[in-house]
C-alpha cells in the first residue's frame, strides 16, 4: 500500500554542528506550493541535546534548510541544558501551532545496536539529580510566519509522562482538541501503567485541558506494550484519519523492540468514537535504513503527513537517525481501515 520513495532516506544528519548526529521525527505542512518540514535534530549523542530545524521543498522530496540555525531550541522552552523533540505542526486560522516534547536536562545515550539505547542523566549546572524535576513535558509553541516560534503553554504537569500530543487542525465544537498518551509516574523514570493508550482532551484556550478520555488501548500483538499517536489528524469525508505507532517487545533481555504503523478513523464531531481501526499494521521496518541506524534499530516513527490531490505523503523518522518518505492513495488507506 505505502510506497517508499526511491530517494530514501530523504534527509540525513550533517551540515551544521547542531544536527551532526541525527535528523528524525519531523512535523510537516504544505501550503503556498511548498512543503515545510520541521526536523528534530541532534549534534551529539552525549549529551543528546535536540533542536528543531526548518527545511522547505517544492516537490516534497528534495529539501533545503531555510536557516542555518534551529527555529526552536531547548532554551526557548525554558532550559539551555534541555532537549526539544518530535514536533507536529498544524495551522488553525492564521496561526501555526507546534506540539513538542521537552526535557529540561537532556540525557546522554549509549546505543547498543540491538535494542533501546542505554541512557543516563548528565550533570548540568543547577541540576541536583532529582529525576522528578527532569520528566518529559509536552508543550505548544506558536508562530505567525512558520519561522519565528515562541512557547505558549504546557499540556501536562510534571508528574505525567505525556508524549505524542497531536493537535487537531481545527476546533471541534468550538474547542481545541488533542490526542495524547498520559502515563502517571510512580518512580524516578517508571510509569504507572504498562500498556498506555491514546486519549483525547479539550481546551477553550490551549492553557487548561479537560481530563483525558480514552480513545483506544493496545489490542493486537504488533501493538505490544504501548501505542501512541503519530501524525496530526487529517479530515476526510469518512472521519478523522489518524496514524499511530505500536511498539512490540521482541526480546526484553536485549530491550529489542519494533515500531510499526497503524491507523484509525474517528468521528468528525465526537473523536472519542472510533469508526474503524486497523487490526494489522500498515508498515513495518523492512529496508536497511528502517532496520539499522545510529541510535535504535527497527523503528518507523511517522510524525508528519500531507494530503494533496488524494495522495498521502507520510514523513517518518527511521531508527532515530534519518527521515524517510512513503506515499499511498487516500482511498486505499481508507479501504484498508474500513475493511
Structure description:
The radius of gyration is 18 Å and the shape is globular. Helix content is 5%, strand content 46%. The strands form 6 sheets. Strands 16, 17, 18, 19 and 20 form a 5-stranded antiparallel beta sheet that branches. Strands 1-23-22-21 form a 4-stranded antiparallel beta sheet. A 4-stranded antiparallel beta sheet has the order 2-3-4-5, with no helix packed on it. It contains 3 helices and 23 strands. The two termini are 14 Å apart. It has 339 residues and is mainly beta. The relative contact order is 0.15. The chain has helices at residues 74-77, 288-291, 330-338; strands at residues 3-4, 22-31, 34-42, 50-57, 64-65, 83-92, 95-103, 107-110, 118-121, 137-143, 150-154, 160-167, 176-184, 198-203, 213-216, 226-229, 234-236, 239-251, 256-266, 274-277, 300-308, 311-318, 322-329. It has one domain (3-338): Tachylectin-2, Chain A (5 Propeller), CATH 2.115.10.20.
Briefly say what this structure is.
By secondary structure, this protein is mainly beta. About 5% of the residues lie in helices and about 45% in strands. It contains 3 helices and 23 strands.
